[in-house]
Amino acid sequence: MTGSQTSHEPYAVVDLINAKRRGQRLTDGEVDWVIEAYTRDAVAEEQMSALAMAIAFQGLTPDELRRWTDAMIATGERLDFSGLSRPTADKHSTGGVGDKITLPLAPLVAACGVAVPQLSGRGLGHTGGTLDKLEAIPGWRAELSNAEMLAQLESVGAVICAAGTGLAPADQKLYALRDVTGTVEVIPLIASSIMSKKIAEGTGALVLDVKVGSGAFMKTLAEAQELAETMVRLGQGAGLSTVALLTDMSTPLGLSAGNALEVRESVEVLAGGGPPDVVELTLALAREMLGAAGRDDADPADKLADGSAMDIWQAMIRAQHGDPHADLPTAKETEVVTADTDGVLTSLDALAVGVAAWRLGAGRARKEDPVQAGAGVELHAKPGDHVRAGQPLLTLHTNTPERFARAKQALVRAYEIGPNAPERTGVVLDRVT
Amino acid sequence: MTGSQTSHEPYAVVDLINAKRRGQRLTDGEVDWVIEAYTRDAVAEEQMSALAMAIAFQGLTPDELRRWTDAMIATGERLDFSGLSRPTADKHSTGGVGDKITLPLAPLVAACGVAVPQLSGRGLGHTGGTLDKLEAIPGWRAELSNAEMLAQLESVGAVICAAGTGLAPADQKLYALRDVTGTVEVIPLIASSIMSKKIAEGTGALVLDVKVGSGAFMKTLAEAQELAETMVRLGQGAGLSTVALLTDMSTPLGLSAGNALEVRESVEVLAGGGPPDVVELTLALAREMLGAAGRDDADPADKLADGSAMDIWQAMIRAQHGDPHADLPTAKETEVVTADTDGVLTSLDALAVGVAAWRLGAGRARKEDPVQAGAGVELHAKPGDHVRAGQPLLTLHTNTPERFARAKQALVRAYEIGPNAPERTGVVLDRVT
Predict the structure, then answer these.
(1) B57·A57 Cβ contact <8 A
(2) Rounded to two decimals, what is the model's pTM?
(3) CB atoms within 10 A of CB A311
(4) I need a surface site. Which of A314, A362, B54, B166 has the fewest CB within 10 A?
(5) ipTM for this prediction
(6) Considering only CB atoms, which residues of chain A are within 8 Å of chain B?
């Protein structure tokens, strides 16, 4: 309808929603306006959710998506690391179970001469949050001012801290809306959400770890490839050296899912040990970050072996008031899940373990919920390992033993034991540039 | 996600939205709950708008739609006319330009021995509202209690009044939401909106006038057929004798669009005159209503000719405090649009005339806006008529002459004059039972 104009807005949002519902492309002016107007509450939540759902079905063209992302960036501040003495590189993971890679990765890449400004979030649902993990370390604080972050990047070379509210506030509002309106799993909206923050953050190079499998948002390789290609295109369009690895999330990464448990495992990796899959992925991502930042001369494996990555880890934790030598919290109660038969562990489902860890108290259902630092799931076997009936497969940790029952419910069909070993595959499934 | 249950609701609306987004059918329990919870504000507006948009793409199965409609009915009261001495029949039009048919139709059908409880609404946008038209009659009031309505149905046989807020309150809330979220033109949502109110109203028979063409929601015959079939199926499923006519809305009905202008034309029809298309459609709908109510013995044409429909009209207006003999309001200012060439009027666009009447003050852009009783557009020629250059085609009426310019803008390409007469078609295009 084209009736009497009753507001001073240049567009009527209903016209934009109807256009997208019918499969039309929004103009640059329409995209700029709808994001800006939504951020200042001139487009209502129910209107943006209808538009988001229309986008779920009709998509956004590459140009439209780039404009949408730019419009989200324009609602907030942009950081600038160009004054640093070193190049910068950042990594973003789409989220998985047991994904503690940021912890060893950031100091490792810094040890190779590339600064890592890692703005992170807290966990929601079955995937853990990097800040929740680091907050298991006594004294460590996540909140830094932009000036503190810059100073730490220059002095230590790596910083993992909370993303401030100044970056892409449109995305923060839209993400909260998508979470309650069934529009989380929409590739252009995921891509613009991630990339708006990473571009605004001002990193010089970006490596994306796009997870595939039961524990990830993207359940199939095809979906993950589409998301990776969409994000790489957005990053490169914004002049950011961007590459994506597609990595396996059918089973948890490493041998732990839970905050303090994962810090402990990360420190093992920095000490030159740790589970092979965590080491493999940490090194693969480090090499991509160094390559994207133009420093492929350095070998990160050396920096794990010679202790220099560990030195930066300790400096990084201390710079944020944490004690890298303090004892980590442990849960008060544990329960063991044992194998019911002899054979080879053929699968151990990432989503089931993630949900179990969440229910034990490692994660939160709502933003305002607290998490238990010591809670989580410890793995004693990984797919491909031989097991015997009665052997411990998992240890569940929590301070609140009434949670064991629901955690074990999540694990009922979490694993399979068969006669033959599954085909071995590496963690990295594909690479998108 | 299936996390810690934090509310006492039996379902999480996000799961329902995601299911519908993926094309799954909602269960009966889910449908019942989401409508009921939305009505009591336990499902947020942004969640319902996302669900409505998902339905726009994925549809509702016939069973799902019936359940959805029943759930909307269950949120409110149901009227009961079974105590009346006569059968009842109602008509619903999907809305068009110059559609004053309810005014002569209700007393005409009553004159044939079938009671007509016509719960109506006010206009929004380019289509007029029946109550706005009748409110042009000095003293007439739209609001009746249920008891007053029943008493008037028994004494007069016809009542046209405002639908109370007690019928299907879920639909009232959802309709207001759809209006601002680009989900008006969604067939299952239109069908359930109309049918929930008509079924709750308790009429024994229902005739649907589904408009097709530029001035209607349904622009094509195929869409109109789908809507008609969907509504007829819903009505019959609810035990309501239901039939639909598909009627032409490419050009306005009759020779006027505007409140008092249309009352005047309706009275001409009741007096045995009036434009042929209005008479044709009034009689066609009357015959369908009588047939659906089991009274196809009566001939409505007789009741126009012998003045008995006019008698009931006058009694109906008087019963609602109106003066059927009072002078109707006229607009203070008029302007004439003339033909620019000789020839045959080949088209006169319904939407353009509707928008012009709206802009002259006959309609409203927002619910709270007032309307001008005298404003509107008078037609001096209809498609098929020969015209000469300089001859008046339209007269525009308004109290606020500054509106003429924007009204004439809407009419710039509203008509075509050519050498040959267009093919004559009747008003009724199809019939769905």
Answers:
(1) yes
(2) 0.88
(3) 16
(4) B166
(5) 0.86
(6) 1-4, 6, 13-14, 16-18, 20-21, 44-54, 56-57, 125-126, 177, 179-183, 185, 355, 358-359, 363, 365-366
